[in-house]
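Objective 1.3, modelling of assemblies. Example input:
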Amino acid sequence: MYTEKISGLQLFYLMVGYVLGTAIILGLGLNSKQDAWIFILIGMSGSLILMAVFTQLAAYYPGDSLVEMLPKIIGKFLSYPVILLYILHFTYSAARASRELGDLIVTTILSETPIFVVIASFMVLMIYCLRGGVETFARMAEIVFPIYIFSLILIWILLFSVDQFDIKNLTPILGNGLMPVLKDAFPTAINFPFGETIVIMMLFPHLGNSKHARRIGMSIILVGGLLLTINSIMMISVLGPEIYSRDIFSLLSATQMVSVADFLERFDALVILMMVAGVFFKVGAFTFAAAVGISQLLSLKQTRSVCLGLGSIIPPLSLVTASSFVEHIEIGFKYYVTYVHTLLQIILPILFLCIAFIRKKWGQR
Amino acid sequence: MKIFRQMKRLSAKNKPHMKEQSVQEQGNNEGLTGNLEEDFQRIKQLFEGAADFAYREIEINAAYSALILYLNGLVNVERMELHVIHPLVKANEKLPRRAEITIDDMKGILSSAQVKQGTTFQEVIDQILAGGTILLMNGSKSALFISEQSWEQRSVDEPVSEAVVLGPREGFTENIRTNGSMIRRRLKTTKLKFEYMKLGSLSQTEVMITYLEDIAQHSIVEEVRSRLNRIEIDAIEDSGYIVEFIEDQPFSLFPQVLQTERPDRVVGNLLEGKVGILVANSPFALIVPVTFFEMMNSPEDYYGRFIITSFIRFIRYLFLAVALLFPSIYIAVTTFHHELLPTNLIFSVAASREKVPFPAVVEALLMEITFEALREAGLRLPRPIGSTVSIVGALVVGQAAVEAGIVSAPLVIVVATTGIASFMFPSYPLTGAIRLLRFFMIFLAATLGFYGILLGIFFISVHLVKLRSFGVPYMAPIAPFHFNNLKDIFIRAPWWKINERPHETGKRNLKRLSSRKPKY
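Predicted structure (tokens):
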């Protein structure tokens, strides 16, 4: 069934890029202000447990994707609506990520271009890539990810040159105590972006050496979380907690402040590059997961035409769900991440693991 | 591509007898009769109208006469006179005094190096066509094939398309045997194999597959063999014909077969586990499988000092980006993102564009197409007038156009830099891909600005990682990643550090070095 194989390194690159994806541009933990980095660390630690759940499920049902193992866990009839929910979740998340890209491009560099053109042209690229199968997608990750990380580190180094850079912006650390941050972090910090790594369960069957699945999964969360933490520290140091919590594209605002010797300035291009690359991972993984989910649910022989169909649904979907970007962010963080993500990425997987555990135990007797 | 396949199927249906109609040599598989007159008439009939067909009758003694057949121009007549005709005329004295003389006796008389024997008409005809000299004798059911062929040919010369400063200067010629010998001289081992085959129903072109046993993978050699055997065409005039037949993805712009004029480059690749294909009458050998990064390497890289080479490679990749992107970045900046340039620079660009009546895209397309035309004209023109083109190009297109206010000066700089950059690549077919993709990028930049350029780069990357050359991923060893092979990609590590063959092609026998560099 899974003839296409990807290596552990490819999966790692792909998923770290996916975790950073839109989160690094949008900024996390906006309500926690200068404690945003603690917010991210809390999310990361919580997600390590979540990743253990995902990898344990994958270990119980080796060679099965999420969609294939669900009927084995909760039975055939109950699984259909749940699978459908996941497919909808993946599709909508892909649409959300492409909307974020579209809005960033339109507000920054292409102010007179219709947003639909931006999203649709990106989707054409995505379909072209996914039609080559997961191998092509994974190899793209190997090419794009090093450039992505290089740009990120370059931006960090450049941020030191900003006059307003002041590490004291981080103080007072936990001025109001740990509780407000904790309250804020649960469950949002776990859900976005770490909880979204649930798509890794659609990729595990393609992994060449599945023994390393857990190690790869954990290092994805760790590396991704640490990079996000450093990034938020840099952002807060440059922008200050007040601007950080209000700015939509904080990385972009910070980068725009860079000016080396009055000549090397305008590094926006790097941020745009990072955004396109990050959304490439994100939309790619979500669309791939949704396409594989649909084809496995309907027992189709191939996913290529499903990708094509999804590719024509996602751009309109990304636009009709919210009339403005502010509304889009509000729907996202207030409702979608808080409720839907919690249900699909935390509660249900843990429930499945419990059922699977009981089944395995009883099955053995 | 599916649509092409369907069209092909349809057209094949409409012409069911196509295969039978194609011109081919008729089967002549019967054996020689032994009756000299009868055999000769039959062969002569086949060669009727071919003015280069020549023959000579020699009487050995009263009872036996021999006949020599050959094609004028393919045989070294002087040597034939010396080693074939002269001994035969004098044969009477040497031959044993007995009633019967067989063709085997003749073998002892001829002083040529290569003499073979054959019995069917088909063999005789093939040998004549290949430039052999044929000896027929009455009463004998077999013929002797004497190999004294030689024809006018170009001498070994410096390769024009892959000139180097350091390193060997000899390039392949049109003679496949000379080419084979150049490879053999560099690899004096019995592991070096040459496999002969003939392609083209009319041209009967000799093709040699060459590889190193124990290093090249069987699966790749077998794949090359089977892909070559599947070629059905009337004539192969150059190795370029074969390229299109054996490529994995012929619709891709990127070459998936390396064409080279240099024997040292072939040998270098054989040592990495690749397979070479030599084609008669073509000075270009083919190498498969090949990756993108190998296309970017020049053979000179391995002869020069490694630090300098690494720097030159860096320049090469930098100018790969320039050749592909410079005009499109210029368009994106001047039409969409003025703010991306420092203020002083944008002022001077804007000032020079003030008088220009066209939008930047039109301007750039105009200049790029003119440049391509100049390039092509420079190639086609007879050499003495070639310099005229460069004068016209530089003065008229460059200076006059700027002064007349038709194009802006910065654009001329952009186009000129791009033009120079596109000549930097060691592989000529790759240059073509980059040149064509430049127009694709210009189009994207004109519609979507910097975002369009990014999308274009992503499109090209997706295409490149999808590509395979004989099953080997085109972007190896970057995607899929293989750390040990990075020593010869963006940098060229010193030879004593490149201790492994490329993983994708050389995994049968990875080890290259047996010792470390001695310390002095």
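The mean pLDDT of chain A is 90.
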